Amino acid sequence: MSRLLFLDESGHDRKDSPYEVLAGICVEDRDLWNLICQVQDAETMFFGQRISIEEFELKAKKLLKRKTFRLASQLPSFDPKERTELARQCLKKGKNNKGNSGGSGATKSELTALAQGKIAFVKYLLELCSRYRVRAFASIVDCEAPYSAGDFLRKDYSYLFERYYHFLDDCPTGEMGLVVFDELERAQCHILVDQMSRYFRETAKGLARAARIIPEPFFVHSHLTTAIQLADLVAYIVAWGVRVGDMTREKRPELAELAAMVINLRYSRKIIGEDEQEHILWSFAVIDDLRPREERQEDLF
């Protein structure tokens, strides 16, 4: 038996997002296929058709952008059955008129229903995650946090792996963790694989955590992998809606309900810290500086 951690990022272009987030969802192997099937069935339930096929992708920045909430609120809530039919018609018109500068020709009701369906769909996906005992992990980095110039595994990755290790250590004896990334450019993939290898083989913490985490990751195409798309939703909602610990950046209030659902997917464990005191370790880590201690100390001189 194994646990699979699907990882994705949000805000790492450092353009608009208040935080950079490396987020993951952990699913037990025996639950993964059932979860995938229910997510796919939910597409038809809310939109009258599959939307994650052909050129479509379950991307949070499309499903949860500000415009979605503005359109959703322009009319009263539709009955779910009517909403699905109107959303289907809206998608159909959009596909038929793709590339037409005159727009999709969708009515106000259809646009509103589609927007309402997107929000309800994401809420349902998070409910599915809770039902399948999915646990969410995140390294949350302030958008102005200094980077390290070193060629080693970034702190946001090592913090996330630390929390993943403790989660696995709480699971029944012998369970191993597999790490699945959204595919990057080939050169970036090689760099990450090399950094992870050195972390798990050459550092004391990495060597200990390799007892539960398989050090070599798998890379997949996000638009073909449902669980990566779920991780993308979590990363986006954490960046724009979740505020825990020392997070002080402005948030989007319309995401409050979804943010609360993501927070409920966290894992926590009591550990003994370096100060020999008991602390609660949460699966969400807030990081204000990506440099190692040595580089931060250099700034003092």
Topology:
Blueprint: E1 2-10, E2 19-28, H1 29-47, H2 60-63, H3 66-72, H4 80-96, H5 108-131, E3 135-142, H6 155-170, E4 176-182, H7 186-202, H8 204-209, E5 218-220, H9 226-240, H10 256-263, E6 268-272, E7 278-282, E8 284-287, H11 293-298
Parallel strand pairs: 1-4, 3-8, 4-5
Antiparallel strand pairs: 1-2, 2-3, 6-7
Q: Assembly type of the shown chains?
A: single chain
Q: What radius of gyration results from the CA coordinates?
A: 21 Å
Number of helices: 11
Major β-sheet, in short?
A: 6 strands, mixed
Structural class, by secondary structure, is alpha/beta
Span between termini = 51 Å
How are the strands of the largest sheet arranged? 5-4-1-2-3-8
What are the secondary-structure elements, in order, as H or E? Answer: EEHHHHHEHEHHEHHEEEH
Please tell me the overall pLDDT: 90
Shape: globular
**Total discrete domains:** 1
**What portion of the residues fall into strands of 2 or more residues?**
15-25%
**Any low-confidence stretches, pLDDT <50, length ≥5?**
none
